[in-house]
Amino acid sequence: MEAATLIGSRSGHHSSALLIQCMATKRTSSGTRSRTISSGKAAPVFPVGEPGPRTTSRSTTPPVKLLTRVEQLRLLTKAEKAGFLSAAEKFGLSLSTIEQLGLLSKAEELGILSAATDPGTPSTLLSLSLVLLVLGPASVYLVPEDYPWEVALQALVALLCVVGGSAAFAASNLVSDLQK
Fold this sequence. Notes:
Structural class: alpha+beta
Number of helices: 8
Oligomer: single chain
Distance between the termini: 52 Å
């Protein structure tokens, strides 16, 4: 549907006209539906009557079944064969110790199990590991070596960063495998 407006002006003895065309979209009839192509990513929606936008996603991922995945990967058998359970017991960490310390309830309070099922956790852990693995050598390079305590600080920060980065990288791979 087009509409045209004619605007005329007279300045002196010249007469000029300016034609402005407006374009409006046609409304679709109730029987005709328009197609919207979506990438499947979350898009903000502004529902009528609600206070603010909410994000919706057209593609829903099925929930991660953590224990089923642990069983499929045979992680408990692998832990048993590797001797992790006996090594933990030698260090004083048995199931009764875990129960007495309340570690399971603490893990539940901290949301560790829900984080293991969150699809964003592997990428977050991978990012953390990369930051830590870069921070270790950067601290050795940036911290001066004028005093012995600065050299000790370099070694401590580098060690913590390398151990933490490696652990975060391993955890990222483990959680990613559990979520498949």
